[in-house]
Specification:
Layout lengths: L30 E4 L14 E5 L5 E6 L1
Parallel strand pairs: 1-2
Antiparallel strand pairs: 2-3
Amino acid sequence: SAMTDQTTSDYSHLIGRGCEDIDLSCLPKTYRILGPDSMATMDFNPERLNIHIDESNNIIAVRFG
């Protein structure tokens, strides 16, 4: 499917931006936003984009899994 063709580099432009500035419609159907103290399930989902934010809600990393 088209979803599995996406890579982390497709979303690397988000790094350094504020979480509130993201156009959610541009994200894959399955995503989650993880803060510094967020608990996350350890299940691996290659189509889920994990968006990691810092204390100021700035995006510091994006990766699938």
